[in-house]
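User: quick one, fold this
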Amino acid sequence: MTDDRDDAELLTAGTLAPYLVRRGLADQGAEIGAREMGGGVSNVVLAATARDGRIVVKQALARLRVRDEWLADRTRALREADALRIAGRLVPGSVPAVLDVDPEACAIAIERAPEGWRNWKDDLLAGHADPATATRLGELLAAWHVGTAGDPEVARELADGGAFEQLRVDPYYRTASTRRPELAAAFSAVIARMAETRTCLVHGDYSPKNVLVGDGVWVLDFEVAHYGDSAFDVAFMLNHLLLKRIHVPTAGAALERCAHEFMAAYRAGLPASLQPDEAHVVAHLGCLMVSRVDGKSPAEYLDDAGRTVARATGSRLLVAPVDTVAEAIERVRAAVPA
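Assistant:
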């Protein structure tokens, strides 16, 4: 079920200044710079400067900006604010601060990164793959997973997994499964296990596009965060690194190292009781590789050859699985030599 209230009254760069004044984030009559930020399909994202501070306002869309019809509950913005606060409490300085939550407009205001910070996805697509960033992302993910594992309060706060179903499971796994019926049984098995697993806070979109790097590392976009299957986050980041390994073979060795360093740092941050079942991570990885070709949100940077490799490699991970992430990385290397 989706909530499309206020869809006709979405914020714009022109209406942001009076909105910030109404929300107490800016002073009446003050000069407020505002502009629309690109890059998102599920939110209106606006940047502003007010009271000498840098602000980003995110307002959830009911219908995503993609070719296929894709609807989602706009109240996911409220869960994002909850998850950001939890993540920031566990690792201060790892996420932007939440400045305001507007339930009526399904919008949140958060701290904006300092000038000069970069999006890690842009770095990777340009062939600049820094393993130190990958290591830090493995450390952060482990800290969030460990810090929320078995926490009944966080489990209650993030119990609503509706946005994750609407924005990940349905458009990725179920859509790809329908379009690739020969893989339906494998997809169904992963979906079933994921639905039964409630371990910790799961970001749900842990990818380079949601990472800013500068004098530190910030992770953004917790809009599908929920209490669930930790393996999904691990596989999601690995999938993005390996898809870029397919797309930028000249940076193949560096991207493979990022994948290995991310996994090593994640595992190093976990106690023995929370160590991942790597075969399950690989199963997610296979589903995600296929989904980013045959789901509702295909990876926009892959060309026809890249899509063919990603589909074939992901399919093989599902029908002829391996037990470790290292073996999965090797399969990608074999498919696209550097």
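User: anything notable?
Assistant: The first strand starts at residue 33 and ends at 36.
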